[in-house]
Write a structure and sequence with these properties.
Elements lengths: L1 E9 L10 E10 L2 E10 L8 H7 L3 H4 L5 H12 L3 E4 L2 H14 L11 E4 H8 L7 H8 L11 H15 L6 H7 L3 E2 L2 E2 L17 H22 L2 H4 L1
Parallel strand pairs: 1-4, 4-5
Antiparallel strand pairs: 1-2, 2-3, 6-7
Helix pairs in contact: 6-7
Length: 236
């Protein structure tokens, strides 16, 4: 299974009123393993960035002035996510912006290019009801180090979310399934089978005394069962 963990940064909070995507970061999982492939763009929004948003992600219009416009990279984004399952924290927010960007490019909504969407915020609320379920809170709760995160960044947050998602869903995969699927390659990613030939298990033979005791135990059990099942007059 191919999954894309995705995050965006934006000029503000409302795509419907003209806010734009200014950063997108995606990392690839294949069969629940990070492949090392990622997609990352800073984007020129051609509009001002809200001061509150800059406090969150630190991206200024001056920094983004020479970066590509969304329309210039939209096809690379579409190809990277095509037919994959998307993993997004608070998916409604990111998808609202990406759908709008795709619409401005004359394309079908962004979500139509993916096979499915998993919202880790909704999943976390079910797993940890009544608790804080921000990305930072989940990192702390699940033992994912985010010490290097001082500002929000789309690629860094996507990498953290991938680790959080794997930690949240670790119980869904058993060792038996992992071993059964090992060997060869899946979706172009090589998976090595562990060599267990060196693990020779010792065979411990029972002694004559242990065999005799076992036989006596079985004989006694057989007699007890016969007496319980025998007709009353025979068992008397």
């Amino acid at each position: 299974m191919r999954q894309i963990v995705l995050d965006t940064e934006t000029t503000g909070l409302n795509a419907a009123t003209g806010d734009r995507v200014i950063e997108i970061g995606c990392v690839e999982l294949v069969n629940r393993r990070l492949t090392g492939r990622h997609l990352h763009f800073y984007l020129n929004p051609e509009r001002e960035i809200d001061a509150g948003a800059i406090e969150v992600h630190g991206l200024t219009l001056e920094f983004l002035a020479d970066k590509p416009r969304f329309a210039e990279v939209v096809h690379q984004i579409r190809e990277f996510v095509q037919d994959a399952e998307l993993i997004i924290h608070n998916a409604a927010f990111d998808l609202g912006f990406l759908d709008m960007e795709f619409q401005l490019c004359g394309l079908p909504p962004f979500r139509k290019h993916a096979s499915n969407v998993i919202d880790t915020l909704l999943e976390a609320r079910q797993m940890f009801p009544g608790k804080r379920n921000s990305l930072d809170a989940l990192c702390e709760r699940l033992g994912v180090s985010n010490a290097h995160r001082t500002l929000h960044g789309a690629l860094l947050d996507a990498e953290l979310l991938a680790e959080v998602y794997l930690a949240m869903t670790r119980g869904q995969n058993s060792l038996v399934i992992d071993i059964a699927e090992a060997g060869g390659s899946r979706d172009g990613v090589a998976v090595a089978m562990a060599d267990l030939s060196a693990l020779a298990l010792p065979v411990i033979e029972p002694s004559e005394e242990e065999l005799a005791a076992h036989a006596a135990l079985l004989k006694g059990m057989g007699k007890a069962v016969w007496q319980e099942d025998a007709p009353l007059e025979e068992a008397a």
